[in-house]
Amino acid sequence: MPTQRLGTGIELYYETHGQGEPIVLIPSTAYGANVWETHQVPALSKELQVITFDPRGCGRSSAPPGVYTMEQMACDVAALLDHLGVRSAHILGHSMGGRMGLALALAYPGRVRSLILAASGSGPAIRSGDECIPGLPFRLVDELVARGFEEFIRHEIVETTTFFTSDYLKNHGEEVRAFYHVAWKQHARWPAFLRLIMARHTWEGTHRLGDISMPTLIMIGDSDDTGSNHVSQCQALADRIPGAEKVVLKGQSHGFFWQAPDQTNALILDWVKRHRGEVDAAA
To answer: Quick check: 170 and 162 in contact, CB under 8 A?
Structure first.
């Protein structure tokens, strides 16, 4: 699959699969397109045109020096759609990918047919306690320094309930370790990882959630309440985005796309079928 130099100056690796309504899958912080290739691309591309990419700083895309911003990465997505000749698409963003989706929807509403915000948030103001302070949380920096970069990533996926529930970790250890190896293969390296984390923790879109004009689905696992507490963040998104729908996935944590792929793929396909051609209302 190709790497394309976009108008934003980035060399972006992307893939397209299937035909039909276009949907862009934006991964979580520092992950590449390959996290979608085992479960989501094969299922969704049977009915949709699935567009995946390595965000700037990740995997096979370039990792330029300097500050990264959420607005900049949203422009990368818009530029990719321009390159592909896609006027508008459904946008699915997981975690930080949801923030990129929000930034895209706010800057270019006519490019977004519908929005799926999965285990995401809109910035520090929507959080509570220490997490509401802009900038890098002390807890994250302290653990990153203590463990080291690669071990920090491995530990979060394989040994904590951040991504997978305790029962799944216990009974599906091989699948969890396989996911880690896939994720790490195209994961952002240092210092691009730090630039991405800084972009995530400095972007603030909470005050503009009322401006989101396209159909929005919020997906959240009912156990995704460690660290940044995405359960409370997603409830705030549902409360503030006009007409937003929310689906709570029982017995799931942050990595529900990989722990429950059949369930989540069915939800995505149903949502897209319900919202074909919605872009005119959003533009």
So the answer is: no
